[in-house]
Design a protein that fits this description.
The chain has about 250 residues and is an alpha+beta fold. It has helices spanning about 10-15, 30-45, 95-110, 130, 165-170, 185-200, 215-220, 245-254; strands spanning about 5-10, 50-55, 55-65, 80-85, 115-120, 135-140, 145-150, 175-180, 205-210, 225-230, 235. It has a seven-stranded mixed beta sheet, with helices on one face. Helix 6 links the parallel strand 8 and strand 9. The protein starts with a strand and ends with a helix.
Length: about 250
């Protein structure tokens, strides 16, 4: 790895100066601004947002926090939860270096371990390979191809686990409903596409802004947590779709 590679742990001041990594090509968009605002609020809870810089260029980042403040739907008290891990180029060791930083922090703060939720069918959640290559183990699964991986730091600690009432959660919603939080800047674009398709079909959209972890743990129909679209008790998506795809999915259920 280049000797010009460094890790930069963000705080409120750096977010104002350098900005977050995702959607940085559209720094005036509401999604980008909402993400930075969300980060500023989460730093007070201990969230870590670490970028890897190579030759003064942003090339990746990791975001993680204590499970008690996490945006993922998993029972994992005493663990750190990785929200995101993304690098612009594989094979350079960026991802492993970011993971090592997270593991180091977990040890320093006497955590039981680290968990991450992966999904091989969408880029909205990390892929599991890098975690398996760095000592994580698959311990649970959930509908829609979600997997729960853990890096254990205590052989005696209770293992994290997913809820098991996903179907019951969906039944609470009949109209076209969007549950969301701005942990991801692309949630704004994803929501706009839902509304545009619904307008074509003259269907009202209910937006539910998830205020805190308690509400997220109660309502989210997937482990991803921060974006869900439900219609007539069925999950339309947990990630961004094109307007045309949303239109087709709603029509099929109608």
């Amino acid at each position: 790895m280049s000797c010009n590679v460094e890790l930069v742990e963000y705080n409120n001041e750096l977010i104002e100066g350098m900005g977050s990594f995702c959607l940085r090509s559209k720094k005036k968009s509401s999604g980008y601004l909402n993400k930075n605002k969300w980060l500023n609020n989460r730093f007070e809870e201990g969230l870590k947002y670490v970028q890897v810089i190579d030759n003064k260029k942003q090339v990746g980042f990791i975001e993680y926090t204590e499970a008690e403040f996490s945006s993922r739907v998993v029972h994992a008290d005493g663990y750190l939860v990785i929200h995101c891990l993304w690098v612009s180029e594989v094979g350079k060791g960026y991802g492993t270096r970011l993971l090592s930083k997270c593991i180091e922090d977990a040890k320093k703060t006497s955590k039981k371990g680290i968990v991450v939720i992966t999904n091989s069918k969408t880029s909205w959640a990390p892929s599991k390979e890098i975690f398996l290559n760095n000592g994580f183990q698959l311990i649970d699964t959930a509908p829609y191809d979600f997997e729960l991986l853990v890096y254990s730091l205590s052989s005696e600690a209770e293992q994290p686990y997913f809820p098991n009432d996903w179907e019951e959660r969906l039944k609470k919603f009949n109209g076209l409903t969007v549950l969301r939080s701005f942990q991801c800047p692309y949630v704004e674009i994803a929501t706009e596409n839902i509304i545009a398709a619904a307008n074509k079909l003259t269907i009202p959209v209910e937006l539910i802004e998830l205020k805190d972890r308690e509400e997220l743990m109660e309502l989210s129909p997937t482990p991803y947590g921060i974006f869900s679209v439900i219609y007539k008790g069925q999950l339309l998506t947990f990630h961004r779709l094109t307007i045309h795809s949303v239109f087709k999915k709603i029509k099929a259920i109608m």
